[in-house]
TrEMBL record:
This is Phosphoesterase RecJ domain-containing protein. Residues 251-337 form the DHHA1 domain. One of its GO terms (molecular function) is nucleic acid binding. Gene3D superfamilies: 3.10.310.30, inorganic pyrophosphatase (n-terminal core). It comes from Xylanibacter ruminicola. Residues 23-174 form the DDH domain.
């Protein structure tokens, strides 16, 4: 199967950029998820096979359920090592921007990123890329940035010499960004890639368990609380939403990543088209994080952009609101009314 995505000109340009660079940084978005971490670790492993020593710098904490992946101990967090990271950005000659479409997505790391003298390469699958770069590899139809990394490495002839330290994070990122291959995952190329990754002797069942069967007791209780006490079902819109306040999160000993995937659960309701999560930030007042999941052709990315200062993919999007949780609920209700015809 032909899975090439680069033109010959892009292929030569990327190869030369890697060959001529010595101080390479790999970056991803704030609150990194499985795709951000997986693509960063996988791309770093490929660069190491080319004789490079890249540094993976992430803006802040990522979920504990990703810590088992190989080489996570080499990741540098900007929020914990700002001075060191600022120095690395200043001396960098090549920066890879993975899994984000605009510099603001790296949050407090943005100034260091945009002021660096390094050349930048974008590898991303979000809509409307807006990262200043000498080379932009943007494919919104891809299921994940990990898919793009695999296809680039494959096209550059680097796959054969890599092992499971590359294959594990790439598979993990593809899996998590598709909800366990439940959405945006019906293209044959995806399963060709999975088949090739399995030749590197990865245990896909163990990867699934490490991510989805690795919760604390308090996280399981939080899940039950949300579904029993907090879920608001709106059958007239084929939609559901729930809220989580700062106090409720503290009650369940919330740590980063505990809310991951909760928004997918209401989609098990027969006929549901849209699920929305509203979660108060644990530190900042009047900040509500929004997650949206949809099925079929309902454009939750359009709703996220119009109502929640966000965006994303057709069936998986997010945003943020600078308001109280009660005001956020009003916005959700207004959004449902505005999209009533598409939800029915």
């Amino acid at each position: 199967m032909n899975i090439d995505i680069l033109t010959q000109e892009q292929l030569v340009q990327l190869d030369q950029l890697i060959s001529t660079s010595q101080n390479i940084i790999i970056t991803c978005h704030k609150s990194p998820d499985g795709d951000a971490i997986g693509s960063s670790l996988g791309w770093a492993e490929y660069l190491r096979s080319r004789g490079k020593e890249p540094t993976v710098i992430v803006p802040d904490q990522y979920p504990d359920f990703l810590l088992w992946m190989p080489n996570t101990e080499k990741i540098v967090r900007y929020d914990k090592h700002r001075e060191k990271c600022d120095m690395l950005f200043k001396i960098a000659d090549l920066i890879f921007c993975l899994d984000y479409n605009t510099p603001s997505r790296v949050d407090e790391m943005e100034q260091a990123l945009v002021s660096s003298p390094a050349q930048r390469v974008l590898i991303d699958h979000h809509l409307d890329p807006d990262v200043p770069a000498v080379l932009s590899i943007s494919q919104p139809e891809a299921c994940s940035t990990c898919e793009l990394v695999f296809r680039i490495v494959w096209q550059m002839g680097g796959f054969e010499q890599l092992d499971k330290h590359y294959a594990i994070p790439i598979y993990c990122g593809m899996m998590t960004d598709t909800g366990g291959f439940l959405y945006n995952s019906s293209r044959s190329e995806i399963y060709f890639i999975i088949g090739e990754l399995l030749t590197k002797h990865i245990n896909k069942d163990k990867i699934y368990r490490n991510v989805y069967h690795n919760y604390s007791e308090s996280r399981i209780r939080l899940m039950g609380y949300v579904m029993y006490q907090k879920l608001v079902y709106k059958p007239e819109y084929h939609a559901a939403y729930y809220t989580l306040t700062r106090e409720e999160l503290k009650k369940f000993d919330y740590i980063k990543g505990d809310a991951e995937g909760l928004v997918n659960i209401p989609q098990q309701i027969k006929g549901l088209k849209l699920s929305v999560s509203l979660r108060e930030d644990t530190d900042k007042p009047d900040l509500v994080w929004v997650s949206l999941r949809s099925v079929d052709d309902f454009p939750c990315n359009q709703m996220a952009e119009q109502f929640f200062n966000g965006g994303g993919h057709l069936n998986a999007s997010g945003g943020r609101l600078n308001c109280s949780i009660d005001e956020a609920v009003e916005i959700v209700e207004n959004a449902l009314k505005a999209y009533e015809n598409k939800l029915k």
